[in-house]
Design brief:
Layout lengths: L8 H14 L12 E5 L11 H19 L3 E5 L1 E2 L3 H14 L9 H15 L2 H9 L9 E2 L3 H16 L3 E11 L4 E3 L4 E17 L5 E6 L10 E4 L13 E3 L6 E6 L11 E4 L5 H10 L25 H14 L3 E14 L7 E10 L2 H12 L4 E3 L4 H9 L4 E2 L1 E2 L9 E3 L5 E3 L3 H10 L8 E2 L3 E2 L1 H5 L2 H4 L10 H6 L4 E4 L4 H16 L6 E4 L3 E2 L16 H8 L1 H10 L7 E2 L2 H22 L3 E2 L5 H26 L3 H24 L7 E2 H18 L4 H8 L26 H24 L7 E6 L9 H8 L1 E6 L8 E5 L2 E5 L7 H27 L1 H6 L2 H28 L1
Parallel strand pairs: 1-2, 3-4, 9-11, 15-23, 22-23, 24-25, 26-27, 28-29
Antiparallel strand pairs: 5-6, 5-14, 7-8, 7-10, 7-13, 9-12, 10-11, 14-16, 17-21, 18-19, 18-20, 28-31, 30-31
Helix pairs in contact: 1-22, 3-4, 9-10, 9-15, 16-17, 17-18, 18-20, 19-20, 19-21, 19-23, 20-21, 21-22, 25-27
């Protein structure tokens, strides 16, 4: 059966993914093999595949496929995250389109709509990951609000509460007015914003004086409860003990003194608004100031503001500024840049807000999570992220874990009609707890808030194996701790640290051994890909155009761990071209007729070289994988296949046109091709599986697939043989280059003479004659006069061009090359003459410079002799 002229990715992808699924190749159950476990960072259930997912899941699939081929029990657990804030926003928007307000329906009805939405849209991204070739154990698919996972979350809250880590209290929190929920510090994105700095006059009581306060937020002046000056500021000594009037509303507030005030900033006076600024809140606590909260949960002004009630905070800002100007209480307005916090989920400007919330104490919990990384039990890859991880863990703040939402795990706290509360799993247990404490059991109701999504996903490596509820179950004991986690650096603290914290608290073990941190996918201009910029291609469309294997290769060729990926569609084109290269090489081999003859000496020599080169490449690739240099591992695979196998080995052994190939040689080629397909499979699963089953390899059993083929292992190789062949390749390349430079047709056979003092070129004579198109290869002891010469390693080679050469042009070319080499030699001599360099540089670096010097001198000598022979 002939193989198609071109590779059809779509056909192969649909065929083989279905085949793998049908025959259970992705399925994992505990057995006697070494487990290799990855848990997928669960994408938001609201999400669709974007370039970041594409990169992250391609890397995971490469790792899991390789482990599977190495004979390990590979288990990749997929799933999605319920994403409280994002999903609730989607459902609220959907209801609005139907004319339904969230406030107008019950919690139960809202959750019914939310679950319907999840069932309809929640599986989209996982289906898209199948298109990517993700070899997950789909029977293990989890959702962070599955009943068993939710129960694990509730149990963990109760456990942490009993251990003294969880408490309830009024604190200043980050408030998202759009999501109407509190956020943790890590969910706030700081952005530099162009603002206005308003200089406002506050009139001093019983005086014609006024004091000027600089603020970016005039809409909060109605919440001012003091003016603060630095006690060391001589400019304001006369204000001690006095009071001033808040502009417009004319409420009287005191002047207080505190060294917290920076005398150099603004006017050196600070308006204190304890309800709307964290630092002001702490000042208010210290000086026992009144707290006036003038903002509703949605960021509009409430009745306490006295004016502009119901106006949005930003509209109120402009109106207040105008009102202040009208009454002559604006001194001036300056342009000003400052950092403002925005919600990671809704992109709304964060409002500091005093709120009753649930918190988790983090100081003790964070200590072992830092120690795991410090002592190398958990490795961050690349290591550059350790410094920021360490800083965060050493300066960790208590975690606000409550969210004012309905979608999520409801906090297991219960209140009676007196607003007293207990923590309990069920209403029955809460009733019993109230009774034991001698408190009222009337009007028992559950806490309305849900837990932060990161609280549930922090249990992910354990809860997917039911390790929280049932820690002694065989699956948890077998698969945990997991091996590698592949995720993005921006959730190193959101998620990774919390998984380590919770994993240790439950098991005294880390949840994984290695954390591979991917970079951000950017466009070729360095901009982060986003829908708003319109610079993010649709991954599905890319796979349709370039084939999944082509896109996977394109992503990985440019994605070193932890470094941002400057993505360009041309990388996918390069990946597609690589797939086509392998396909065409296979078509070439498939098209050879055979003759029942033994391999020739040159074919055996070529096979011996490629065997050693293959083993060398496998050693390189293994080293890259062991150090998580996946981009380098792919590039080594790419070069081995494209350069060594296709461009050299196949050219060395292929028969002349319409001539059969020796059966022994074809068997060797097929053996190499199988090993190459196995090596490439983790990166290019569909193409390799398609070729694996071609009749060229004979009949295969249904379980004999590339996905479970034996992955090549490290073996010894003859480095000297490889170096020797590199010199042979150099001879062939130099002859080709001479032809090209002189405009001589490749079909014109040229004579070649070699003064061989190091390499035994006789072993490679047939190969050189064939690939360099040599009419005669001779071995000489003397220089060949009138010939173009070059060095191959340390051996001199001569190509006599006779009538094919322009003597004057050749003399000019050689003279220029001598001039260049002399300049290069001068720079090397200067470096070696520098005593500081010689004394301080590593010995191998100095030796490298000395080698450069010797090489340049040898080349100059050869060229000068060639030049003299042309005179």
């Amino acid at each position: 059966m002939s193989i198609a002229k071109t590779y059809n990715p779509k056909e192969a992808e649909e065929k083989w993914y279905s085949y793998w699924m049908e025959h259970g190749f992705f399925r994992s159950t505990p057995d006697e093999r070494e487990p290799y476990t990855i848990v997928m960072p669960p994408p938001n259930v609201t999400g669709v595949l974007h370039m970041g997912h594409m990169l992250n899941n391609t890397i995971q699939d490469v790792l899991i496929r390789r482990a599977r081929m190495q004979g390990k029990n590979a288990c990749w657990v997929p799933g999605t995250d319920h994403a409280s804030i994002a999903t609730e926003a989607k459902v609220v928007a959907m209801l609005k389109e139907q004319g339904i307000e969230k406030a107008a329906i019950s919690r139960e009805d809202f959750l019914k709509y939310a679950w319907e939405w999840k069932e309809k849209y929640g599986g989209i991204i996982l289906k898209q990951l199948e298109k990517l070739g993700a070899s997950c154990d789909w029977e293990r698919t989890k959702f962070t609000m599955d009943p068993d996972l939710s129960e694990a979350v509730i149990d963990t809250f109760i456990k942490f509460y009993k251990e003294g880590y969880i408490y309830r209290g009024v604190r200043m929190v980050n408030w998202d007015p759009q999501g109407k929920t509190a956020l943790s510090d890590e969910e706030v994105i700081r952005k530099e914003v162009n603002q206005k700095l308003y200089y406002i006059r506050y009139n001093v009581k019983d005086s014609n004086e006024h004091i000027i306060i600089a603020t970016t937020r005039p809409e909060t002046i109605m919440a001012d409860t003091a003016i603060c000056i630095n006690p060391n500021d001589e400019r304001y000594q006369s204000l001690r003990g006095k009071t001033v009037f808040v502009p417009i509303i004319n409420r009287e507030i005191p002047v207080i003194e505190d060294e917290y005030v920076e005398m150099e900033f603004g006017t050196g006076c600070l308006k204190v608004t304890p309800a709307h600024d964290l630092n002001d809140y702490e000042l208010g606590q210290k000086h026992n100031l009144e707290i006036i909260d003038i903002l509703n949960d949605d960021g509009t002004l409430n009745e306490k503001a006295q004016i502009l009630v119901g106006e949005d905070r930003f509209i109120a800002r402009k109106k207040i500024a105008k009102m202040l100007e009208e009454v002559g209480q604006i001194e001036k307005i300056d342009d000003y840049k400052s950092q403002v916090g925005f919600s990671e989920r809704t992109d709304a400007a964060i409002e500091p807000k005093l709120s009753m919330q649930w918190f988790c104490k983090m100081d003790k919990l964070a200590t072992p999570a830092l120690e795991y990384v410090e002592n190398g039990t958990i490795k961050l890859i690349p290591e550059k992220f350790f410094a920021s991880y360490k800083h965060w863990m050493e300066n960790v703040k208590d975690w606000c874990i409550s969210r004012q939402l309905w979608w999520g795990q409801r906090i297991p706290a219960w209140y009676n009609d007196r607003n007293e509360w207990v923590v309990a799993k069920t209403e029955a247990e809460a009733t019993l707890a109230f009774e034991e404490q001698g408190k009222s059991t009337a009007g028992i109701r559950q806490e309305d808030d849900v837990l932060d999504t990161w609280f549930s996903s922090g249990l992910w490596p354990m809860s997917v194996f039911d390790g929280v509820r049932n820690p002694n179950n065989p699956e948890f004991q077998y698969y945990y701790p997991t091996n590698d986690l592949v995720t993005a650096p921006e959730i190193l603290f959101f998620w990774v640290a919390r998984m380590i914290i919770m994993g240790h608290d439950y098991t005294q073990k880390p949840p994984f051994r290695n954390v591979y941190l991917t970079g951000i996918v950017r466009d070729k201009l360095g901009r982060k890909m986003s829908k708003s910029l319109g610079n993010s291609p649709d991954p599905i469309e890319l796979m349709e155009q370039y084939g999944t294997d082509g896109v996977r290769v394109g992503m990985l060729l440019s994605s070193p761990a932890g470094n941002d990926l400057m993505f360009d569609v041309s990388y996918c084109e390069q990946g597609r071209n690589f797939a086509n290269k392998i396909w065409n090489a296979f078509r070439l081999v498939k098209g050879w007729e055979t003759t029942d003859s033994p391999a020739t000496a040159s074919q055996k020599t070529a096979a011996k070289w490629f065997e050693n080169r293959f083993n060398q490449a496998v050693n390189e690739i293994e080293d890259h994988f062991e150090n998580y240099r996946l981009s380098d591992a792919l590039m080594s695979t790419y070069k081995l296949i494209w350069d060594d196998f296709c461009a050299w080995y196949l050219e060395l052994v292929k028969p002349a046109y319409q001539t059969p190939i020796e059966t022994e040689t074809l068997a060797t080629v097929k053996s190499f091709f199988e090993r190459i397909l196995a090596l490439a499979h983790p990166f290019m699963p569909f193409l390799t599986e398609e070729l694996w089953h071609d009749e060229l390899f004979g009949e295969r059993a249904k379980e004999d697939c590339a996905i479970v083929a034996t992955y090549p292992v490290k073996q010894e190789f003859d480095e000297q043989l490889i170096k020797e062949f590199e010199i042979v390749q150099q001879v062939i390349s130099e002859v080709r280059s001479i032809r090209n430079n002189k405009g001589i047709s490749p079909k014109v056979a040229l004579p070649l003479a070699i003064n061989a003092t190091v390499v035994d070129f006789s072993k490679y004579q047939e190969s050189i004659i064939k690939l360099a198109n040599i009419e005669e290869l001779s071995f000489v002891k003397e220089k060949v006069q009138g010939a173009v010469s070059f060095l191959a390693g340390k051996d001199e080679c001569y190509v006599a061009l006779e009538n094919n050469i322009d003597v004057e042009a050749e003399k000019e070319r050689i003279s220029k090359e001598i001039e260049y080499l002399k300049g290069f030699l001068l720079s090397v001599d200067k470096k070696l003459a520098n005593e500081r360099f010689v004394q301080n540089a590593k010995p191998e670096i100095v030796q490298n410079e000395q080698n450069k010097k010797a090489d340049a001198e040898a080349k100059i000598k050869i060229l000068e002799e060639s030049l003299s022979s042309l005179v």
